[in-house]
Design goal:
With 484 residues, the protein is mostly beta strands. The protein is 6% helix and 43% strand. The protein has one domain. The two termini are 36 Å apart. The structure holds fe (ii) ion.
């Protein structure tokens, strides 16, 4: 509903309703919708995100700490089926039964003060992303191992460690990339290589997993500090990590139970951004570039062009947004995008150049992943546009490599999400397919899936309303396979 402001003028609803819990698990075919479900859209659109921000009378201390809830939209024969289910992690099970906070999180403490948190590591809520690879569906969060989920009914199979190759403490990021030529899945995780007189030595562990799901190569990249490294890119031959200016300082306070990890993450402009290029075959460091301070949370695509590597990235020059993430229901909480930049790394000269690609605040970039690591020409991003209700993403854009931007803004009171590309059946060219975007309708407190033509975002093909809302989620994955 609209809410009168102090002048008595009705204002559109904020995005906050889209952060409320969805505690019920559903499975149904969407019967009533507008438009036509494309006959050439076949497959499953999985999404992941925190399904709840409250437990009993408590609120979690950070958006990142809500329990992972997978959902699946299955497109088959012109019909769409929806289902959702929580990942049954130990945290989810214990807190559901107790109806209070039982585990620490990224920004959440167990009630009871320092001694209730002393020495306890944050739980893995399995809430950030999802991937179907090696015949298995995973729910991913960078604070732990993958959680395997049955793609047929989203029931939880269990925590997964690739036959013991992912050892205890070797975490696995939410943003792996599938290398199209080999079908291998490349992922990484923050860790320590040991403890010296200087203290724990930060590293990134890098993993390469073949199409049958065997983790067959590991690498390790030494770092200067403990960064917030959430995403990376690959090209045909390289994995590229941007180690930026958002760092964790004072982890001792976390170990002692006095502070959360969120309390000690900070943007330090004295730290330049280092860009490490790693050989994908042996996972050894090839070259390091250095540029001004900055941070990249999410990347678009990357590719090699002669002696250069081109990388699309969403740039931030601060991390003030973390305050909003720690108090998501606060009226002033606001989720900002970044600046869409293109970096060019010259492997011969060692020079880095950068340029701004889009004038619109952008985040959650996606592209046609059949072209991962190769020269692609189109990227789609979630945007935040000032339409009188821009506390959250409220638009999407299609950006071509020559900088042409098509921006589609939602009406005030409607809030968007990561726009994910799904190729149409028999599609063989980039951009031939659909953009799938979940939209939260603050007026009705329900969500819908919008299907748009990828090559023309103004062509809204169909709107598929759910029977309920979907809490704002992070990331998704589309596969041409169906499972039910
Ligand atoms: Fe992410």
């Amino acid at each position: 509903m609209s809410t009168p402001n102090q002048q008595g003028i009705n204002e559109p609803p904020t995005h906050h309703g889209g952060l409320e819990n969805l505690d019920t698990e559903y499975s149904y075919t969407i019967e009533d919708y507008e438009g036509v479900v494309p006959a050439d859209l076949h497959g499953t659109f999985f999404r992941n995100g925190p399904g709840r921000q409250r437990i009993g009378k408590e609120k979690y201390g950070h958006w990142f700490d809500g329990d992972g809830m997978l959902c699946a939209f299955t497109f088959r024969d012109g019909k769409v089926h929806f289902k959702n289910a929580y990942v049954r992690t130990p945290k989810y099970m214990a807190e559901t039964e107790a109806q209070t906070i039982r585990y620490r999180g990224f920004g959440t403490q167990v009630p009871g003060g320092m001694f209730a948190n002393l020495g306890k590591t944050p739980a893995n809520p399995a809430n950030t992303n999802t991937i179907y690879h090696g015949g298995k569906l995973f729910a991913l969060n960078e604070g732990g191992h993958p959680w395997e989920v049955d793609p047929r009914d989203l029931s939880t199979v269990g925590e997964y460690n690739y036959s013991g190759e992912l050892q205890r403490g070797q975490v696995f990021s939410a943003h792996g990339r599938v290398h199209p030529a080999s079908g291998d899945y490349i992922n990484f995780g923050a860790g320590i290589s040991g403890i010296t007189l200087k203290g724990p030595q930060p590293v990134l562990n890098i993993y390469r997993i073949n199409p049958t799901g065997r983790l067959f190569t590991k690498g390790q990249l030494s770092l200067d500090n403990f960064p917030f490294c959430h995403d990376f890119v690959i090209t045909n031959n390289y994995a590229i990590f941007f180690i930026g200016s958002i760092v964790f300082k004072g982890m001792g306070g976390v170990l002692l139970g006095r502070k959360t990890i969120s309390d000690v993450v900070a943007y330090d402009p004295a730290i330049n951004m280092k860009i490490h290029v790693v050989d994908l075959n042996n996972l050894h460091l090839v070259k390091t570039f250095e540029t001004d301070h900055g941070a990249i949370v999410h990347f678009g695509n990357a590719y090699e062009h002669n002696q250069e590597i081109v990388v699309d990235a969403m740039y931030q020059d601060g991390f003030a947004a973390n305050a909003s993430l720690t108090n998501v229901f606060h009226p002033d909480s606001k989720f900002n995008g970044g600046i869409y930049k293109r970096y060019i790394l010259n492997m011969e000269t060692g020079k880095v150049s950068e340029s701004q690609v889009s004038p619109t605040e952008s985040e959650f970039p996606t592209f046609d992943t059949r072209l991962t690591g190769q020269a692609s020409t189109v990227c789609y991003t979630a945007c935040s546009v000032d339409n009188g209700a821009n506390g959250f993403f409220n638009g999407i854009q299609r950006v071509t490599s020559d900088g042409d931007c098509t921006l589609v803004t939602l009406p005030p009171g409607m809030y968007g999400s990561e726009p994910l590309f799904a190729p149409s059946t028999n599609s063989s060219t980039e951009d031939d397919g659909y953009i799938l975007e979940v939209v939260y309708n603050g007026f009705e407190h329900i969500s819908e899936l919008q299907v748009l033509r990828a090559d023309n975002l103004n062509d809204l093909v169909c709107r598929l309303p759910l029977k309920h809302h979907l809490p704002h989620q992070f990331h998704g994955y589309f596969t041409a396979q169906t499972f039910c």
